[in-house]
Amino acid sequence: MRFLITGGAGFIGSHLTRHLISEGHKVLVLDNFSTGSACNLNSDPGNALPTVVDGSVCDAELVDDCTSQVDGVFHLAAAVGTFTIARKTIESLRTNLHGTEAVVEAACRHRVPLLLASTSEVYGLNPKAGLTEDDDRVLGSPPHSRWSYAEAKSVDETIVHAHVVEHGLDAVIARLFNTVGPGQSGEYGMVIPRFVRQALAGEPLTVFGDGTQVRCFCHVLDVVPALVALLLDRDARGEVFNVGGSDPVRIEDLARRVLAITGASGGIVHVPYDTFFEAGYRDTPHRLPDCAKARARIGFRPTCDLDEIISSVVADQRAHALTRGG
Ligand code: UDP
């Protein structure tokens, strides 16, 4: 089959690109290389390369042209990372809203199935342990730009859902919970690549706040086949699925595990949120998914535990010590 991957040069997109090509599919990547990188796409010698279009997902004509050439679309292009959202709020909103509108309309017009990569961030401050797809969103006040990512992604989900209902769009939504693995940059905020880079550089690990906040991390190689299975499963259409790990960890304990695995001696430093974010920034204290729906539908079951996830990032950063920021 032929697939369009918007954001195909990004962290998850490039893993998905390699996975689809290794399964014998053809891939068209649309990426503006704002956070993605051409290096992400070149790392499998011997395998076919994707066709790469350097352009914006907000360019509706370009998106339409790309969509006309494929049998399915993975929409992963987005402004990502807490640092990006905080520092480039307007541009992030534009990408995350107008880009999705263009992709959804093109998929509708060409009648091709679409997967929207959404985010666990839409649940916001909902404290429930084991968030399920119908749970409420609990968000702070709109002037806090921190919520704009959740707002935009929630509207994206609504745009997709409305096109399913009103125009018969064939679409599925995956809400991703803290996806991690080789190739992810810490430059935009993501905690594991940041901690690993800091540890390998002998710097203290910057735990934001008191470190009691809890996350579940999931290896990108567990996530990618789930995205493919969801897009290809006719019975998943019109539905939302959580896709995430099952191993909750406090960020302070995560830092300790990174120190133990790397053997680093730089220690841990607690950093107030307002060093990096606006005053009054509110982090999500708990974010734990219930993935029973994806398990029942496509047999989703993550295989990598947290130590394996951390070790894969350590190995990757050791191999690319000079080429990635954080
Ligand atoms: N975090 C941290 N130190 C860092 C980067 C992130 O303590 O250098 C924390 C962040 O405040 C959050 C958690 O790690 O509580 C996960 O952050 P990330 O940006 O990876 O994902 P989020 O869950 O916030 O979307």
UniProtKB/TrEMBL annotation:
Bilayer-spanning residue ranges: none
Stretches assigned to the NAD-dependent epimerase/dehydratase domain: 4-244
The protein's required cofactors: NAD(+)
InterPro entries for the chain: Epimerase_deHydtase, NAD(P)-bd_dom_sf, UXS-like
Highest taxon of source: Bacteria
Keyword annotations: Decarboxylase, Lyase, NAD
GO biological processes: D-xylose metabolic process
One family name in Pfam for this protein: Epimerase
GO terms for cellular component: cytoplasm
GO molecular function: NAD+ binding; UDP-glucuronate decarboxylase activity
Name of the protein in question: NAD-dependent epimerase/dehydratase family protein
The organism of origin for this protein: Saccharopolyspora rhizosphaerae
